[in-house]
Amino acid sequence: MMGDFRGAAGWLRAAAAGLAFRPMTDADLPFLSRVYASTRAEELAVTGWTDDQKAAFLDMQFRAQHAHYQQHYPDADWLVVISGAEDIGRLYIERWPTQHRVIDIAFLPAYRRKGLGAALLSDLIDEASAVGKAVSAHVEKNNPAMQLYRRLGFSVVEDKGVYDLMVCSPSARGATDP
């Protein structure tokens, strides 16, 4: 997988799916911006905005999100997800004393709904469970991956408006087999 990523050796589902990770660098920002933009395409399709307006909005939103994440999750692992030699997504994780927080997980459209997210999340749940920790994530209420989170044992613990704070407790470990 990669030598620098904590816990990577135990990420068997990700490895079986052909996934690897590498730490994000500033050179990855254009790619990460493209991944972010792809997650908002459907939402922006109905705006009536020009392509230039959409691009400017998405650039502004990506920069704001990136700055927010960097400020509020200073010790996170900022990972580019790789399949073969191709960058296909991002996985941002912060490991706190009581839980592992999924800050963000996203793939380019061609790699969605292929079980890759289930592999990554299941491995992360196993990693956290092995040390008695929960896994948490803020998930948009209309996110198509909401079903995946529920299937993996996550439950809503707090309504945050547009998002639900979801947690998979160590006792839900048996639910991680996708």
The portion of residues forming beta strands comes to 25-35%
Largest sheet: 7 strands, mixed
Give the beta-strand count.
7
Helix count from the secondary structure assignment: 5
**CATH class category name:** Alpha Beta
Offer a concise description of the structure.
The protein is of the alpha+beta class and 178 residues long. It has a single domain (8-176), classed as Gcn5-related N-acetyltransferase (GNAT) (Aminopeptidase), CATH 3.40.630.30. It contains five helices and seven strands, in the order αβααβββαβαββ.
Would you mind describing this structure in some detail?
This protein has a 7-stranded mixed beta sheet, sandwiched between helices. The chain has a single domain (8-176), classed as 3-Layer(aba) Sandwich (Aminopeptidase). The chain starts with 11 loop residues before the first helix and ends in a 10-residue tail after the last strand. The protein is built from 5 helices and 7 strands. 37% of the residues lie in helices and 28% in strands. The model is unreliable at 1-9 (pLDDT under 50). The chain is an alpha+beta fold. The longest helix has 22 residues, at 51-72. The chain is globular and about 50 Å long. The protein has helices at residues 12-16, 29-45, 51-72, 116-130, 146-151; strands spanning 19-23, 77-83, 86-95, 99-107, 134-140, 155-160, 163-168.
